[in-house]
Amino acid sequence: MPSLIACMFSLALSGASGSVIRTSQTIRSDGTVDGSSKSPGALLEEVIKLGSLPHAGLMQHGGAVQLGVSASGQTEPMMRTADQVFESRVQSMLSDIQEMARSGVTPAKDKIQVIKDLVEKELIVDLQSTHSAADQQVTTNLASIVTCNTNGNTELTKIKGADGAETAVSTARTAHSTCREAQKGKSSEKDTACQALDQWLKEVSNPATEPTEGSPGYRDQMVDYIEKMSDYYCPKGPKATEMKKACTDAEAAHATHKSSCDQKQGAFESGFCQWRTRLVDTCSNLGTCYSDALKVYNDHKTATTDLVAKWKVEYSALKKISCYCDVWLGDEAAAKTLASCESLNVDTTPMDIDFKTPADKITCSLDAVANYPGTAAFKTNEYKDFADYVVAVIACLQAGADL
Question: What predicted TM-score, i.e. pTM, was given to this entire model?
Answer without folding.
Answer: 0.69
